[in-house]
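Q&A log
Question type: sequence-to-structure
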Amino acid sequence: MSQSTHTVLILESKPFFEHDKRCICFTKETGKLTCLAKYAAKPSKKKVWSLEPLTIASVTLFKGKSFHIITNYSVTHHFQNIRTSFNHLQYALFFTHIIKKCINEGQENKQLFNLIQETLTLCNKLAPLSKIKSYFYNNFTRFEGIQTQETIKQESQYLNDIGHYLGYRLNPPLQLDERSKTLVK
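Response status: OK
Response body:
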């Protein structure tokens, strides 16, 4: 019965059976992990929101047969301000999607963990999206070997390069004009 404690970023969370949650987590030490939180989706559970995407949590894991079982967890950072801006929320979820698709189970990647953590911090501060996008795209493409030197490109060029790397086309997330609350095309 070996247990270990990790700081994780929740990349995805889905109901599993009636009261459990299946979480895809990203850690500095062990990369992407698929975890099962027993009774975490039970309506009476006080911390039902704490294992949701865009949450950094401290979790205690037990190695099960097919999943790591989350035996204990507490929220370290929940990036609440991101949820006040539709555009920042869209990009935060988009960046976590890119990270989730490019890492494999058990693949340690401290650089990418630090990158997504810092990117989410910028989103949480509601920094200008142009600054956040430039920071994420430039660092991601350098860390993953897509480009070798720091160069600033248009978002469409970054998405094309990252899409080729992931093996499918990437489109930028939907955006709202914050003043008029209409979709930007």
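Response note: The beta strands are 3-16, 20-27, 31-37, 56-63, 68-77, 175-177, 182-184.
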